[in-house]
Design goal:
disordered C terminus, disordered N terminus, alpha/beta, 23 strands, Rossmann fold
């Protein structure tokens, strides 16, 4: 047994005998049509998936992991990409021979998929409740009321705060982590035989990630559901997987049990992947940076009006950020961590003038409040931001070279030839090829698109980079290279970094100081050694204890689940924020902050 025990007991051993195989892939070939002919994307891939088994597929971006999953569910983009050989069988049913109509009846019912990018997977013009109900009614004879009730139950199962309200909201009104939880709820609602999870916890903080992984295990225990887990998080692989397939350039380079892969890897590529995994404790001992601040926030508040009624008056406000104060020193990495929706990204947007705020924000001694247009343009040379969702941040109509070089054009830097050379250098430094500058964003994988966003942010050589989950979509080897790149740029140019992340292991490895946020407020702030070595706040301890460990034999202590509803950041007009209190299921104090 390779999986660690859960609070409710260990999962039963999966039946991986050939007779019990729920999914069989034999000699799979997937190719893309180019001007020069067919080019293979996946070659000769074979594996079986047993009932109740979790099979993890790991590898770098572009290795063929997601293409394999799309081939299984019949969602390869036609006509350019298609299965050109091999077999995919769900029990006795050969999926590659089915019409789209018959495949549609299986997809979502017997095979469900959690996609990597929730914002591009959810319909922006339909409410969350409508989309959940639509997915259920496509396979089950339910009335609208019954489907809505089931949708509400599904949102509660993934612990989405205020689930009744979320039913009537649109995707853009939710944070990235909230949108991913909606996708997980949609996939689990019909209790499929096979669940393909493509980076299911990438956008989630560690505590919600832990709860989601527990949910997946609960589903396996109840129905014997088989899971294909595609992830770059080797801690999640170690905790969840029975077997692991390592892929590179569309081919399998190694397959084995999780214990064998982590303790006795045979391939050099597998060993390199494991060596790049960030581990808790590896970053301790560095002295804090002592320098003048490049940015200072004093008593910053961000609130959003909620209007309603016949006259559209303001009836309540979302207290997104409440009385936040900190500074970021030149050349340091200041990390902001906390659960989805706690206000981390809102602070980032306030610092570059994208959302209105109260309080004071200074960049290089200049207050952001009252800046004219010219001053704001100058500010953007000093501060750049890398957003969480790379597909939403890149214009799909522009070529990658033009996207990266656009800041140089806007600020009148260099000749066309010099700008092109700068773009080529940036692409190389983030692990891409200069000849890729003529491609469009949709021609890259999710991890490659995030590297493009980082290259764009580096174009102006800013003094402060705000990285909002900038490495969350990257596999561990590319993540390590990008973090090394950012560290090198910090040393060379004295760049400061506001590092927003839910990955506590990465934060512990890169941060000089750390601020922990909950519902818009900072509950703990200190040096990396103070926060990770001796956390004072119980909420901080909960975040650290929930971090997956890249060791399949590690038995993590149970993390108490929260009892009751998560407090709401929405308050009536004229009222202040509620006292923040959370308790664990046993009634003990977990979080308390004014």
């Amino acid at each position: 047994m390779t999986r660690s025990a859960t609070p409710s007991g260990a999962a039963p051993a999966p039946d991986t005998s050939p007779a019990a195989a729920v999914l069989t892939v034999e000699g799979l070939e997937v190719s893309v049509r180019t001007e020069a002919g067919l080019r293979p994307l996946v070659s000769g891939l074979s594996f079986t998936l047993g009932r109740g088994e979790t099979l993890a597929i790991a590898g770098e971006s572009g290795s063929g992991k997601s293409i394999t999953s799309l081939a299984i569910v019949g969602l390869l983009p036609p006509p350019a990409v298609r299965v050109t050989g091999g077999s995919i069988a769900l029990g006795p049913t050969e999926l590659t021979a089915l019409s789209e109509g018959r495949m549609r009846a299986i997809r979502g019912d017997r095979i469900a998929m959690i996609f990597q990018e929730p914002m591009t997977s959810l319909n922006p013009v339909l409410t969350i409740g409508t989309q959940l109900a639509e997915a259920m009614r496509a396979h089950t004879p339910l009335s609208r009321a019954e489907a809505r009730a089931r949708a509400l139950e599904a949102l509660r199962s993934v612990r989405l705060s205020q689930p009744e309200r979320r039913l009537d909201q649109y995707p853009h009104e939710l944070s990235g982590g909230m949108r991913q939880r909606v996708m997980i709820a949609m996939a689990l609602a019909l209790r499929p035989e096979v669940l393909i999870a493509d980076e299911p916890t990438t956008a989630l903080d560690v505590t919600v990630q832990r709860e989601v992984l527990d949910l997946l295990r609960d589903l396996q225990r109840e129905l014997g559901t088989a899971i294909i887990l595609i992830t770059h998080d080797m801690g999640v692989v170690a905790e969840m997987a029975d077997r692991v397939i390592v892929m590179r350039d569309g081919r399998m380079v190694e397959e084995g049990t999780a214990t064998d892969i982590f303790t006795r890897p045979q391939a050099d590529y597998t060993r390199a992947l494991l060596a790049a995994v960030p581990r808790m404790g590896a970053g301790r001992g560095r002295p804090p940076v002592e320098a003048a601040p490049i940015a200072r926030l004093s008593d910053v508040q961000v609130r959003f009006d909620l209007k309603g009624g016949f006259l559209g008056r303001v009836q309540a406000r979302v207290h997104a950020v409440e009385h936040v104060s900190f500074d970021i020193r030149r050349g340091e990495t200041f990390a902001l961590v906390g659960e989805s929706g706690c206000g981390k990204s809102t602070i980032a947007r306030a610092m570059v003038g994208l959302v209105p705020h109260a309080g004071r924000i200074e960049i290089a001694g200049q207050p952001l409040e009252g800046m004219d247009r010219a001053a704001r343009k100058a500010l953007h040379r000093r501060v750049q931001i890398v957003f969480q969702d790379p597909m939403a941040a890149l214009d799909p109509r522009m070529r990658v070279g033009d996207l990266i070089g656009e800041p140089l054009v806007i600020h009148g830097i260099g000749t066309p030839g010099e700008r092109r050379a700068r773009v080529a250098d940036l692409l190389t430094r983030v692990g891409l090829l200069p000849d890729q500058m003529g491609r469009y964003p949709h021609e890259f994988s999710g991890g490659q698109r995030q590297r493009i966003c980082i290259a764009r942010a580096l174009a102006l050589q800013p003094e402060l980079i705000i990285a909002d989950e900038s490495v969350s979509a990257l596999d561990v080897s590319v993540q390590a290279r990008v973090l090394d790149l950012l560290a090198a740029l910090k040393r060379e140019f004295g760049i400061a970094l506001l590092f927003i992340s839910h990955d506590m292991a990465v934060v512990e490895n890169v941060a000089d100081r750390v601020a922990v946020m909950y519902l818009g407020q900072i509950v703990e702030l200190g040096t990396r050694d103070q926060v990770f070595g001796n956390p004072r706040h119980p909420y901080t301890r909960r975040l650290i204890e929930a971090v997956p460990v890249p060791d399949p034999m590690h038995q993590r202590p149970p993390v108490p689940r929260l009892a009751g509803e998560v407090p709401s950041p929405v308050h009536p007009v004229g009222s202040g924020p509620a006292r923040l209190i959370l308790r664990d299921a046993g009634g003990g104090h977990l979080v308390a902050a004014e």
